[in-house]
Amino acid sequence: MKKVAIFLVVVMSVTLTFGQSAKVQSAYNYLKNGKLDKAKENIDLAAQHEKTIGKAKTWFYLGNIYQELYASEDEEYKKLADNALDIAYDGYKKALELDQKDEFKEKIQFNLLNNIAIQYYHQALAYYEADEFIKASNSFLSSKEINESFGGLDSLATYNAAFCAEYGDDMDKAIELYSKLVEIGYERPVIYTALSNIYKGRDDYDNALEVILVGRDRYPGDINIIIAETNLYLDKGNSAKALESLKLGLELEKDNPTIYFAVGAQYNIIVDDTSKTEEVREKAFDAAVEAYLRAIELDPDYFNANYNLGAIYVNKASEIMSIANELPLGDPEYDVLKDEAFGLLRNAKPYLEKASEIDPEDLSTLVTLKEIYARLGGFDEKLKVVDEKLKSM
Description:
The protein is mainly alpha-helical and 393 residues long. Among the domains are: 17-103, Serine Threonine Protein Phosphatase 5, Tetratricopeptide repeat (Alpha Horseshoe), CATH 1.25.40.10; 255-393, Serine Threonine Protein Phosphatase 5, Tetratricopeptide repeat (Alpha Horseshoe), CATH 1.25.40. Helix content is 79%, strand content 0%. The chain has helices spanning 2-32, 36-46, 56-71, 75-78, 84-98, 105-129, 133-148, 155-167, 171-184, 190-201, 205-218, 223-235, 239-252, 257-272, 278-298, 303-325, 333-358, 363-376, 380-392. α3 runs antiparallel to α5 (84-98) and α12 packs antiparallel against α13 (239-252). The longest helix is centred in the first third of the chain and has 31 residues, at 2-32.
């Protein structure tokens, strides 16, 4: 009786083992016949059973089946696994780990994984188009991981992953990836401005400037890096350095009205700085006017340039009138200063009128125009129009 019992146990053991191996074979057969639901059902069971979980073939077929599920155009099959591509990739990695005889290695490494990498890349693009930036970043990273397993660095996928991480507000990941690209000298100047801006957003101006200076050294002719450098100096209140950067920018783009405006704005800061000498402020005034005029010449409808040019004339006129009003009654110098101030207001008038034409709802422009019309006199109709606008706002 004992012998019979032992025999029965052995038979049952073999049957169980065979049963699970049969599921692996069944999964393959169903896959071959395009019945992906049945193929999945069988391979899932085999991948969980102790008798087949440690076999490379199980995971090789699992990778194949889930890759087909991901690529299928049949919505019923696609619904069977939301993360089919990830499961396929994990399956192939597990198969390679268990494949002691290198039975599947060549096919996985030189064919199937390459397909997976391409599918991850297209998946990333689809996520990007749907504004799912973190998912896009992760898919680009998966594509990168596979490609780099063959050697080298997939810098394009790294850049795309960094870009998507930044847009998805995962700044830690973006910093890590952009920093890697800076380290390897990836040839896209935008990585320096992007990384610098992230640091700047964290008030880490030391790292922001360090990155930009590396970019300036590698791409001395890139206008965006120069502008980023300028903005950093502006944020730190370093007008002298900001002007140096802007002048470099003008050498590169002599027909860029934005840069001329920025130069004018920097000289404007010096004009308003009463700690500076009159000579320095006067030279800065002339330089600011020249820069604003050039910006307007290049772009007549540039609101900020028109407004700032008008405002700098008005402010100077106001400063001169303050000096005049301090003079003793009857001092002949009063009329000289008043004429100078009113001349500046007349200079300001056409630019502020143009600014108001460009943006009719700008309150500051209307208020300043009202003051000019009232002071100069002879503009009753224009004063009435501005007054009515202001009352309606």
